[in-house]
Amino acid sequence: MRISLRLAVIVVIFSSHALAAKGKKGAPKEPVSTMDQGEDPTAKEESEKKAAKVVPETDEEIAAKQAKADAAEVKKRRARAKVGVFANVVVGFGQAPMPGTGADRTTLKTTSGTFMAGGYYDLSPDFTLGVRLPWTVGSQRQPDGGYVTVTALGTLELMGEYRVAISPFTILPIFFGLGAPTAQGNYDALDQSGTQRMTLNAMADAASGYRDPELFGPHRLPVIAGVGIDYQRKALSLRAATKVVLGIKVGGQLAHIQDMDSTYELKPLSFRSVTSAGISYDFLDRPKLYGALDTWLAYNAINAVEFTSKMGATPPTRLQFVFEPRLGARFGKVSPSVGYIFPIGGRLADSSTSGLELHCDFAF
Question: Which terminus of the chain, N or C, has less C-beta within 10 A?
Answer without folding.
Answer: N
